[in-house]
Amino acid sequence: MFHHSSKLQFPVRVEKPDPEFAMLLQQAIGGVEGEIRVAMQYFFQAMGARGDARIRDLLISTATEELSHIEMLGYAVALNLEGAPLSYQEASAKDPVVNAILGGMNPRHILSSGLSAMPVNANGMPFDMSHIYASGNVAADMLANVTAEATGRVLATRLYNMTEDKGMKDFLSFLIARDTMHQQQWLAVIEEMGGLNASLPIPNSFPQENEAQEHSYYCLNTSLDKPLPEGRWSNGPAYDGHGQFSAKQQPEILGDEPLLGNARPGSGAQQEQIDGVASPKP
Description:
Low-confidence stretches: none
Distance between the termini: 74 Å
Helix content: 40-55%
Radius of gyration: 26 Å
Strand order of the largest sheet: 1-3-2
């Protein structure tokens, strides 16, 4: 059961409409870094959350907040489209608007949505849900959520720097602040579960003796002309406290050449593939 307030979570104002910026704002709605992505990600994680009910409740609350961000962004898109041309004659009559429509306005904001937001990215591509990560493993999901909020915050800061509109800057500043909190809260869930050390390797329920541990902690260099750069990843204790980082400058080749058997009759292969004989040279 969801409840809705008729008022926005934060004021959304546009001092000077900008149809091109409306197109850019679409990325924050339907882009892979956008609010549809995180809202759906948190919903599906919550619906599959087992164990600590507090984490499920936190996911549901944050998913619902992200829906409110979609609403605010949709309103911001519509406000930025105020005064955009609805016809060629109208566009031709006003030089600044002609410049706006030719300078990057998404024509689908006229043709498809009547000067309002759509569930698409800045290129007009619909969000297809392929970037929803809900594994059923809380630690894995929390790390995915930190990444989602980090890329969302990167996007919001770029949008902030692409407008001079005071109302849009205030609104984006709010979204940036909420991204800060959401990054922090997902990291705090990991800490609540014992911290990163206790969570790694994910899943920590799999018996580590069942993995080939001699390959668990070395950093592998595959460059032909450069050595592996030294860093925290190549020396010292691993983050899970179970191993020591090391480096291998040359790959250790342990497998054989991957050769398949002959093709089956009726498979559409050449007769030479079926017989297993080399083709005669011309």
